[in-house]
């Protein structure tokens, strides 16, 4: 081999190419990790109503690390996603020293009992609000179902002028709804919307004119309903005179 000049030339070229490749690789690693390329600007966009500048500043100062090239985009996105009202955070680099972050917030539709909120997309998230929101009580995993039912109940109750404020879904999938006037509806497990519409059709012309406070209306009867009125007292039975 040592007498084969062609083979020696090929080996020398290979070694030279390998050396150059290693130098390029080492230079690239140094370049990427060089402190000469820090992230100097963080630009945050989005229609923010609940997320505060202080929260965003805290994340930027305590959760983000690395240079413009080494900063982990997925970890950065997850760090901003930890904030209670953040639904989604999009992160991208902009040469030479800027990190652009677009934040989208949750929009609360209801409360989940005493623990967290439900967004307009039917997703539970851990946040607090002082807004007057409907309240859900239901089995774990029923958030989407209850969110859809809220919209359907609002539509079904529209003729009555009443609104649902508390939705209860039992483990047996039976519905109980409290309205904004304090009346509770027992709607059962089937024909829930039909029963609600039947109540709405009778409210103004029949139930609202009874003159007594109505606590509960049971709509589970096939062709009617029963109203519970705690203040109602039946008139005394008439006893005819005897001679």
From TrEMBL:
Subcellular location: Cell inner membrane; Membrane
Keyword Lipid biosynthesis: no
Gene3D superfamilies recorded: Cell division protein FtsQ/DivIB, membrane protein fhac
Pfam family, one: FtsQ_DivIB_C
GO biological processes: cell division
Keywords, ordered alphabetically: Cell cycle, Cell division, Cell inner membrane, Cell membrane, Membrane, Transmembrane, Transmembrane helix
Domain POTRA: 37-106
Topology of the protein relative to the lipid bilayer: Single-pass type II membrane protein
Main location: membrane
Transmembrane segments: 12-32
Binding partners and assembly: Part of a complex composed of FtsB, FtsL and FtsQ.
Function, in words: Essential cell division protein. May link together the upstream cell division proteins, which are predominantly cytoplasmic, with the downstream cell division proteins, which are predominantly periplasmic. May control correct divisome assembly.
Family statement drawn from the similarity comment of this UniProt entry: Belongs to the FtsQ/DivIB family. FtsQ subfamily.
Name recorded for this polypeptide: Cell division protein FtsQ
Species in which this protein is naturally found: Crenobacter cavernae
Underlying gene: ftsQ
């Amino acid at each position: 081999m040592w007498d084969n000049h062609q083979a020696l030339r090929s080996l020398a070229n290979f070694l030279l190419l390998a050396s150059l490749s290693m130098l390029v690789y080492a230079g690239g690693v140094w370049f990427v990790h060089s402190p000469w390329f820090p992230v100097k600007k963080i630009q945050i966009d989005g229609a923010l109503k609940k997320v505060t500048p202080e929260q965003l500043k805290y994340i930027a100062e305590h959760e983000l690390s690395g240079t413009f090239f080494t900063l982990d985009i997925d970890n950065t996105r997850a760090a901003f996603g930890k904030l209670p009202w953040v639904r989604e955070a999009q992160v991208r680099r902009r040469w030479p020293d800027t990190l652009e972050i677009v934040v989208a917030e949750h929009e609360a539709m209801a409360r989940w009992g005493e623990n967290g909120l439900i967004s307009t997309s039917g997703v539970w998230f851990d946040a607090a609000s002082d807004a007057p929101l409907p309240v859900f009580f239901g089995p774990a995993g029923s958030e989407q179902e209850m969110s859809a039912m809220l919209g359907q109940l609002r539509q079904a109750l529209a003729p009555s002028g009443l609104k649902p404020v508390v939705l209860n879904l039992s483990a047996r999938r039976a519905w109980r709804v409290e309205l904004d006037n304090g009346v509770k509806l027992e709607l059962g497990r089937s024909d829930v919307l039909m029963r609600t519409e039947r109540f709405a059709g009778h409210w103004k012309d029949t139930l609202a004119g009874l003159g007594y406070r109505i606590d509960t209306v049971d709509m589970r009867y096939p062709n009617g309903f029963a109203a519970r009125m705690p203040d109602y007292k039946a008139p005394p039975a008439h006893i005819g005179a005897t001679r």
